[in-house]
Amino acid sequence: MKSAFTAIRGYFAELAGAWDDFWFNPVDPAVLCAIRVVTGMLLFWTHLVWSFDLMAFFGPEGWIPPEMRERLDGPRMALGFFDLTQAPWAVWTFHVLSLIAFFLLTIGLFSRTAAVWSFLAALSYVLHVTPGAFFGLDKINCFLAMYVMLGPCGARYSVDRLLRVRRGRVDADPDYVDESWSANLALRLLQLHVCIIYLFGGLGKLLGRAWWTGESTWLSVANPEYRSLDMTWMADWLRLAELIAHATVFFELFYCCLIWNRWARPWVLLMAVNVHAFIGLAMGMPEFALAMLAMNAAFLPTGLVRGVLDPVSKRTGGMLASKPKPKEPKEKTKE
Amino acid sequence: MAKSGKKRDHQLAEGQGGQTASKGRPAVWVRILISIAVLWHVFVVFISPLAVQPASILVAGIATSPYVRWYTDSLYLNQGYHFFGPDPPRNHLVRYSVTDQQGAVVAEGSFPDKAAQRPRLFYHRHMMLADQAGNGPPDIPADDWLRFSLRAYARQLLRTYDGERAAIECVVHNPLTPRMSLQGVDPNTPETFETVMVVEESAAALAEPLPIPAPPAPETTAESLPAGNDL
């Protein structure tokens, strides 16, 4: 009886230890910082595009008029900036400030503050156009911004770091960046969220007929509105189209299991690159594809990210943070 | 390759069932609080897509209760993730014609339109406007909401072009079959378009607010997620 009790206690102690390790083990924030850069770029571009007709989408009248908003916001328990005011000057001021925040997030200046503002701003935009003009990109943008702000997203690949190095507050050696438990927490949440997205992406497809019959690939490439690359040659290769449909469903359904296995992980990530490259290039959604790949990047090993980005960061940092050259004596010029 | 910045500061302690050293980690009470928050967050992230119809009354009831929605709605977590599911979509297009007091056409076009709306993401926003026109609150019939949305679009066009009348036609664009594609049929041939609804709006109506469609009889079953988020 005593040994059974010890075994049960041991199990729960191990479970608590594993939980603690999974969520709170301090990690190098390199992966989170790399995701921050991509998130900032995506947010900046996504919202810059609204500028082409900002008031038509976010103004007091427009495609989504107040009567429609009133009815849509009724059952919703959320509040965005555009629920407070839609005066043109306020909308444009908010828009410009948000673009500045997205830009600061990209370059990593006032990173944490910019991340919080970026998340709140992205939420405001998407709440106003849901339903109306939203799509998957907006969802993923919001998730990326939400998780990026949880960790030290400006610890690397940022102007913040350059400034700290310049002021002598941190070591210039990129090997000496503090590990962080909140970076791990943010990455773990990203990892679990992307697993849930793919799982329900796959389960949702199983509710239809076309993903079972394999016609879905053809229906996607033959859709003139989405198409950005002519893939209708698949009409002659229908078995290939069916294989792609089955592979997509398999990938989405089993991603949440296979990605945690270190031997399967590189292949799963490679498959993710293929799936999203197809969506980005052939279906005209490069931003959405990049956003999904940014979520997948939460599974990349730190060494790989640093191996790719550290040299770029060093070169850029060297150019930006180099001390000003000593002034040379002025040449005498003829008056 | 980069070396480790700091030594790994946790090790499985022998005989302690894998308890870890807490160096570099927050205090125990902070970890407990964060763990509770994490469990809550992952729970709502999971239950939201699970509640997309068809769903059990239990799950739909939990996901749409105010105790969950204060969190999912405000953080935009009330999502379904059924990208291109259950089946890939057939897209809608909105064709419009705006005329002045003399009946002359002042604007004519359609959205989405790759030539008129650039860059591609801006075009995509217009594609969503056309596709989500019928995507309203769950208690309003889709056709009623579609008419309401098309009238809203017509009013926007009337204001933009200072027109007197706007005629809107919502069409669905069917993709070609593989056989038709091999035969060289144009994917934009008129036979591929089906009219869904036609709406007309006049400038005189702009002075009045757009009447909101009323829900039919109250439903007794659990609500679905906020409309539009199961895409």
UniProtKB/TrEMBL annotation, chain A:
Instruction: Using the UniProt record, give the first listed, main subcellular location.
Output: membrane
Q: Where in the cell is it found?
A: Endomembrane system
**Which parts of this chain are annotated as the region Disordered?**
316-335
Transcription as UniProt keyword: no
Question: Which ranges carry the HTTM-like domain?
Answer: 24-304
Task: Cite the entry's keywords alphabetically.
Answer: Membrane, Transmembrane, Transmembrane helix
Q: Does the keyword Transmembrane apply?
A: yes
Q: How does it sit in the membrane?
A: Multi-pass membrane protein
Which InterPro entries does the UniProt entry name for this protein?
HTTM-like (IPR011020), Sporulation_signal_mat (IPR052964)
Q: Which residues cross the membrane?
A: 30-50, 89-110, 117-137, 143-159, 189-212, 237-260, 267-284
Q: Which GO terms describe its cellular component?
A: endomembrane system
- Which segments show compositional bias classed as Basic and acidic residues? 325-335
Which SMART domains does the record match to this protein?
HTTM
Q: Supply the PANTHER family for this chain.
A: HTTM DOMAIN-CONTAINING PROTEIN (PTHR39535:SF2), SPORULATION-DELAYING PROTEIN SDPB (PTHR39535)
Query: Any idea what this protein is called?
Result: HTTM-like domain-containing protein
TrEMBL record, chain B:
Q: Does the entry feature the keyword Transmembrane, yes or no? A: yes
Segments of skewed composition (Low complexity) = 219-231
Give the UniProt keywords, A-Z. Membrane, Transmembrane, Transmembrane helix
Q: Where would you find the membrane-spanning parts of this chain?
A: 28-52
> Per the record, which residues fall in region Disordered?
1-22, 208-231
Q: What is this protein called?
A: Uncharacterized protein
Q: Which species expresses this protein natively? A: Botrimarina colliarenosi
